[in-house]
Amino acid sequence: MGFKVDLNCDIGESFGRYRLAEQKEILKYVTSANIACGFHAGDPSVMRETVKLAIENQVKIGAHPGLPDLNGFGRREMKITPQEAYDMVVYQIGALQGFLSVYNESMQHVKPHGALYNMAAKDALLAEAIAQAVYDVSPELVLFGLSGSELVKAGEKLGLVTAHEVFADRTYQTDGTLTSRSQSDALITDQEKSVTQVIKMVTEGKVTSQQNTEVSLKADTVCIHGDGEHALAFAKYIKETLERNDIAVSSIST
C-alpha cells in the first residue's frame, strides 16, 4: 500500500513593515497553507495577498488562529478561559473567511498557532472549546492538531474530520508532545535528519523521542515553518525527498 501525506506551512505571518519569508516560492512545494489571521501575526493586506498567492498555486487554505500577542509571535502562553479561546477562534476564522469570499474560494481547515496549539494539545477544556468553534463556523472544516492530542480527540468527538499533524523540524518527548522551544534541542536544523524523521513517521507511524524511546503517532499532515531561515530550501527538499521515497504529497481534501 502506498503512503500519502499533506505538506502544510504556516504562512502570511508578515505584518505592517515587517516582512517574513519567501511566501510565493514556498507555496510551490506545499499542499496546504495555514494563514495567520492577525492576532499573532498577519494583517488585512498580508492576509489578502497570501490568499491570492495560495489560490494561484492551487494550495488549500486554512485559518491559523493564535493568541493576541504580536510581540511574542503567539508563542507565549496566556491564561485564557475556554470561552475566550472559542471567541478568538471564531473571530479569526471569520476574518480569513472574508477574504476567501472575495475570491470565491472555500476554506479547507483550521490549525491553531503556537502556544494556543500546544495548550490545546494538553488541556481538554481548551481543546473542546476550539473544536466547538470550528464546528459551529462550519462542520465541513478539517481540524489540524498535534498527533494524538486532546485537540484531535475533541474534534473527532464532535464529528469533525481531523488531521493528525507531525513536525519536520521539531523534536519529541516520550508523551508525544513537542520539545519546548525554551530548550536548546527543540529544533532540528539538519535537513537530512529532519526528512528521515518525517519518512519514519509517515511509513512506520513512529518517532524517536529525545529520551530515545519509540513513540507511536499518526501522520496525516507534516508542518513546515515558513519563518525558518532556510524555509524555502527545506520545503523544496522535503517534497522532492518524500516523492523519491514513493510518498505521495497531496492535500487532506484530495
UniProtKB/TrEMBL annotation:
<dbReference type="InterPro" id="IPR011330">
    <property type="entry name" value="Glyco_hydro/deAcase_b/a-brl"/>
</dbReference>
<dbReference type="GO" id="GO:0005975">
    <property type="term" value="P:carbohydrate metabolic process"/>
</dbReference>
<dbReference type="Pfam" id="PF03746">
    <property type="entry name" value="LamB_YcsF"/>
</dbReference>
<comment type="similarity">
    <text>Belongs to the LamB/PxpA family.</text>
</comment>
<comment type="function">
    <text>Catalyzes the cleavage of 5-oxoproline to form L-glutamate coupled to the hydrolysis of ATP to ADP and inorganic phosphate.</text>
</comment>
<keyword id="KW-0067">ATP-binding</keyword>
<keyword id="KW-0378">Hydrolase</keyword>
<dbReference type="InterPro" id="IPR005501">
    <property type="entry name" value="LamB/YcsF/PxpA-like"/>
</dbReference>
<protein>
    <recommendedName>
        <fullName>5-oxoprolinase subunit A</fullName>
        <ecNumber>3.5.2.9</ecNumber>
    </recommendedName>
</protein>
<dbReference type="GO" id="GO:0005524">
    <property type="term" value="F:ATP binding"/>
</dbReference>
<dbReference type="GO" id="GO:0017168">
    <property type="term" value="F:5-oxoprolinase (ATP-hydrolyzing) activity"/>
</dbReference>
<keyword id="KW-0547">Nucleotide-binding</keyword>
<comment type="subunit">
    <text>Forms a complex composed of PxpA, PxpB and PxpC.</text>
</comment>
